[in-house]
Write a structure and sequence with these properties.
317 residues, mainly alpha, two-stranded antiparallel ribbon, 16 helices
């Protein structure tokens, strides 16, 4: 029997195929020796037979042990699949009730169950842009980017003025490192709703990942004007994961620190300035020249922070 390129034998196959013979060519096989020794008396014959059984048993046990070791070393454990944790949607439930339950399940990160309820609601409310968008968000959270993209595109097709769907489609493209395409979707979302800090923050992240720093700063300025806490709620790690180099990630932190300083938010500015310093931002000395940090430079905490800057190595070109 062959499994995964490794020959595995049953005990019957081993006993009939893996017979050991001495290396001396003049010696007869054990069975023949025992036959010749039969004439020597039953006592010696019994010793020979016991020797034969012992050898055969040793061969069987050794072979099975070796096979077991090979098999165990090649075992691969597959993680259990995502499972549904709640009862399926009731056929008589209304679309509104199904959507409400789906929202709750998505909030609890039970995305598969949420999708069941969203799809059940969609069956009662066909081509609803909001439902399609929520389906896409659930799929996006499960990193099913292909499916999420289709859902957002269907939402846009159903409602050409649905800004959230354009923004979320931009997120899918951003996660796929298609930054230029993501910028276009974010700009479409902003054209329909220019009061969303998230839209501008996402636009800034896409520009930053493209290394288009000036439009990135402008987009971030708009985001902060609409919501000074937008960076605290958004995923800094997500933006940083897209940036191509440690230098760009350090520059991102310095840029955000400058924006917070310009708005007079000293605590946030110092926090990001420290991150830039720890990341080895090579132009940290500009903090003494940039006008945005003029007020922050009067803060004792700024002096204390910069006193430790000499202990942090800068990045080289």
């Amino acid at each position: 029997m062959r499994t995964n390129g490794v020959n595995l034998y049953s005990s019957k196959e081993i006993s009939s195929e893996l017979l050991f013979y001495p290396s001396n060519q003049n010696s007869a096989p054990p069975r023949q020796n025992c036959g010749r020794m039969a004439s020597l008396g039953t006592g010696r014959l019994g010793v020979c037979m016991s020797y034969w059984k012992a050898c055969l048993t040793l061969l069987v046990v050794s072979s099975l042990t070796a096979v077991a070791q090979v098999s165990h070393s090649e075992q691969v454990t597959i993680a259990p699949p995502l499972v549904r944790a709640v009862e399926p949607p009731a056929p008589e439930a209304t679309a509104a009730a199904l959507e409400l339950q789906a929202d709750k399940l998505r909030g609890e990160k039970l995305y598969l169950d949420a999708l069941d309820y969203y799809h059940a609601a969609l069956a009662k409310k066909a081509n609803d842009a909001s439902l399609l968008n929520k389906i896409g968000v659930s799929e996006l959270m499960m990193q099913r980017y292909k499916e999420a993209r289709k859902s957002f595109e269907r939402a846009i097709k159903s409602d050409h003025q649905f800004a959230n769907a354009y923004n979320n489609l931009g997120v899918v493209l951003y996660e796929s490192k298609k930054y230029g395409a993501a910028v276009k979707q974010y700009e479409k979302a902003i054209a329909m709703d220019n009061n969303s800090a998230s839209f501008f923050s996402n636009l800034g992240a896409a520009y930053f990942s493209k290394r288009d720093f000036e439009p990135a700063v402008i987009a971030y300025q708009h985001a902060l004007q609409l919501d000074p806490e937008v960076f605290e709620r958004s995923s800094r790690a997500g933006v940083q994961a897209q940036l191509p180099s440690p230098e760009d990630r350090a520059r991102y932190d310095y840029t955000v620190a400058k924006l917070y300083a310009q708005m007079g938010l000293s605590d946030h500015s110092l926090e990001y300035l420290k991150k830039a310093m720890e990341a080895g931002y090579k132009d940290l000395k500009n903090v003494y020249k940039d006008a945005e940090f003029a007020e922050l430079r009067k803060n004792p905490r700024f002096t204390e922070l910069m006193a430790s800057a000499s202990k942090t190595p800068a990045l080289s070109d």
